[in-house]
Amino acid sequence: MNKPKVVKFGGSSLASAEQFMKVKAIITADASRNYVIPSAPGKRFSDDIKVTDMLYSCYGLAEAGKDFSEALAAIKKRYDEIISGLNLTTDLTKEFETISTKFASKAGKDYAASRGEYLNGIIMADYLGYAFVDSAKYIFFDDNGNFLPEETHSALSAFLAEVPKAVIPGFYGSYRSDGKVKTFSRGGSDITGSIVARAVGASVYENWTDVSGVLIADPRIVKNPKPIGTITYKELRELSYMGASVLHEDAIFPVRKAGIPINIKNTNAPEDPGTLIVENTCRTSDYIITGIAGRKGFCSVNIEKDMMNSEIGFGRRVLHAFEDNGISFEHMPSGIDTLTVVVHQTEFEEKEQQVISELMKLTNPDSIDLESHLALIAVVGRGMKSMHGTASRLFSALANNNINIRMIDQGSSELNIIISVADEDFEQAIRVIYDTFVNQKK
Ligand code: ASP
Questions:
Q1: CA of 187 to the centre of ligand 1 (A)
Q2: Ligand 1 centre and the CA of 158: distance in Å?
Q3: Element housing 209 (H / E)
Q4: What's the gap in Å between 87 CA and the centre of ligand 1?
Q5: Global pTM?
Q6: Span from the CA of 171 to the centroid of ligand 1 (angstroms)
């Protein structure tokens, strides 16, 4: 038997009847697209409000004992527009009566937010002629709100084995103990898709959104960046850590464990290949680098001490000073007699003097220098390993554009090079790197 595909559609892919039509065309174009995970309707235009946010604020009114009927009617209107635009006869009146009663009895914020996906799932199931499965019955959390992967997997896989085509709303499940609705964190429909893909042993988990894949660089910085063809989980992790927002972080684990690739696709351009996320690949990327990402707002603490290398426990004592003040560090490059600790500036600022005095006490350094307003940029790529000269190309390109590099950190995996520049050089540095490795290619 052919393995099924699991297809998850994000909010913008389901924001209107028109978008629903595109989604149906995508699903029916491939007979193996058997399990569909919808998000709640998202924005139709840039300053539109996502249904999830409407639900949160409507429930806020209910919780405060205020009249929420108008706010709820506005939400119903969003769904009714989709239903009539699709010429369906789905009637959500009863559902909204239940929701209204539950809101009045303060059923909880999670219950409220989950209705966005729940109702969209009912419409989608009607529209496709697929079974509707309420995720609360098969996706479980413990009393502390932690997702229960194995209990969920056995319940969901046993149930779906008997249901060949189904719509399973994203974003929520329930507490194992009392069945009350519990959501994942925001953007959590990605996680539901991944859980379902594992449960049905999918050939691929297709995650449909409004961009043609993971982009090489942030489109707010680089104009029309190219999408990445194939990326490994490790590379994706490095880019996401540095701020590239692609998938919900927790969506990787279930499919990765089961060896199922993720394909990021564009609902508005379904022919585009999108980005394939895999465990490993012998496919080389189109460019030496796979992607660039970065973040601003760091600060570096440079500690200098003659002969520090022979002082056993020096590094531990340095980190102790940060740990004691509840500050996590991002990087720790070291040189001869110097050690640098890179931290988030806002976090560090509050505790600055305490950390410095503890460093003085614990390590007795020759000097401590602080440098603030730094940005970190990660240049990530499995292809860098086999190419010599990547680092020198990177550094000369930045130097030729008068961008001063404050710090360099290359992991031993050779999967990435992290550089630090001044916050004000951040955007320009990313554009120069993109231009060097993508526009000018090899
Ligand atoms: N609708 C939820 C949110 O806006 C979950 C999701 O879209 O993935 O966060």
A1: 4
A2: 26
A3: strand 204-209
A4: 26
A5: 0.89
A6: 6
CATH class of 291-439: alpha beta
Task: Count other Cβ atoms within 10 Å, centred on residue 153.
Answer: 19
d(CA 239, CA 241): 5
Range(s) for CATH 3.30.2130.10 in the chain? 291-439
The amino acid at residue 244 is: A
CA 399 to chain centroid = 33
Mutation choice for ligand 1 from 13, 19, 117, 250, CB with most ligand atoms inside 8 A: 117
DSSP codes, 64-124: TT---HHHHHHHHHHHHHHHHHTT-----HHHHHHHHHHHHTT--HHHHHHHHHHHHHHHH
The protein residue with its alpha carbon nearest to ligand 1, atom 8, reads: 187
Around ligand 1, the residues with Cβ closer than 6 Å are: 11, 39-40, 50, 52, 116, 170-171, 186-190
CATH 3.55.40.20 matches 5-278: no
Angle at 423 between CA 417 and CA 428, to 5 degrees: 70
From the CA of 189, give the closest atom in ligand 1. Answer: 8
Question: Quick one: which atom of ligand 1 is closest to the CA of 186?
Answer: 9
Q: What sign does the CA torsion over 128, 11, 295, 357 have?
A: negative
Q: 10-residue block means of pLDDT along the chain (442 residues)?
A: 93 98 98 98 96 98 97 98 98 98 97 98 98 98 97 98 98 97 98 98 97 94 95 91 86 93 97 94 84 95 90 92 94 89 94 95 94 94 78 92 89 81 97 94 61
Instruction: Delimit the CATH 3.40.1160.10 region(s) of the chain.
Output: 5-278
- Integer Cα distance of 200 and 379 in angstroms: 36
For the chain, what's the residue count?
Answer: 442
Q: State pLDDT tens for residues 26-68.
A: 999 999 999 999 999 999 999 999 999 999 999 999 999 999 9
Q: Which amino acid is located at 285 in the chain?
A: S
